[in-house]
Structures are given as structure tokens and as C-alpha cells.
Design a protein that fits this description.
alpha+beta, about 160 residues
């Protein structure tokens, strides 16, 4: 059987999660039946597998998950009924939605296109210090584009 690492939202509560390592597809199905269809998320299939028979895996699941449904029946037996049930052996056979798998890549920003040389309307540069008049009684040199204004002087 394939193995995977998953996150489990206990009771379907995404604020109360635990990691589960090396779970089988059959175990994922049981966990989803106990905690909710989308309670098992961030599924990361592993490159390893275990060689366990259906009978051994079902017995392991019965010991590990003694949860019962409203009818007081074991949920493992509800998911895999009968004397000799066929268990899920691959992650794909579970038919999980793509959103339940952990992303394998981080999003990258789109490559920026080179900015076109836009004509920026910048304020004119101030005149160099050598061009500034030495007259300290006037501020006209600070605003070279403005027309000179005569101030009313009180006498």
C-alpha cells in the first residue's frame, strides 16, 4: 500500500490539527469517515510503500480507530464492510479533491516587463549654487520658474 503524510483536522476543526505520518490510503478513508470529508488535508504521497495484507491493515485500523457511529457500529467496519473487504491501496483510488493535497511549489511572481522609458513630469532641477544670486534679501532665486512678484512693503 502507498503511504502519505497528512494533516488531520480533529472533528473537522481546522484550528485543531495534528500531523499523521506514514498513513495508508485505507487509513485516510477511515479518518475522513470519522472526522469529515475534508478533515484530511495537505496530503503528501511518499515514495515508499508497505507490504501489508488487506486483513492485517483492517485489523490494525480496528485497533487504532475504535470510533463508533450513531448506530453503535465501528466506523472502520462501516467503511470496509464484509468478511474480506477490498481496501484502498493507492492515494489516487480515494478520489481526493486536488485542494486536499499539499502544494509542491510556492507561487512565484510573474516576471516583470522592462519599464518603458516614460516621460516623467518632474519638477525642474534647482539651479546650481553658482547661479544663485548672492542677494540674500530676495528669495527669487529659490523659485526660478516663477515670475517675480513685488511685495507690498509697509513704510
Amino acid at each position: 500500500m502507498e503511504l502519505a503524510n497528512v494533516m488531520l483536522a480533529l472533528g473537522g476543526d481546522k484550528n485543531n490539527t495534528v500531523p499523521k505520518y506514514g498513513v495508508t490510503p485505507a487509513e485516510i478513508a477511515v479518518l475522513a469517515a470519522i472526522h469529515g470529508a475534508d478533515a484530511v488535508f495537505d496530503v503528501v504521497p511518499l515514495d515508499e510503500a508497505n507490504e501489508i495484507s488487506f486483513r492485517e491493515e483492517r485489523e490494525r485500523l480496528l485497533r487504532a480507530y475504535p470510533a463508533k457511529n450513531e448506530d453503535n457500529e465501528l466506523i472502520v467496519l462501516e467503511v470496509y464492510p464484509g468478511v474480506s473487504p477490498i481496501l484502498h491501496t493507492t492515494i489516487e483510488s480515494l478520489g481526493l479533491e486536488e485542494t486536499l493535497f499539499k502544494p509542491t511549489e510556492h507561487a512565484k511572481p510573474a516576471a516583470e516587463k522592462p519599464a518603458k522609458a516614460a516621460k516623467a513630469s518632474k519638477a525642474p532641477a534647482p539651479p546650481p549654487l553658482s547661479a544663485i544670486a548672492k542677494d540674500t534679501t530676495s528669495a527669487d532665486h529659490l523659485f526660478p520658474d516663477d515670475e517675480p512678484v513685488k511685495a507690498d512693503v509697509m513704510e
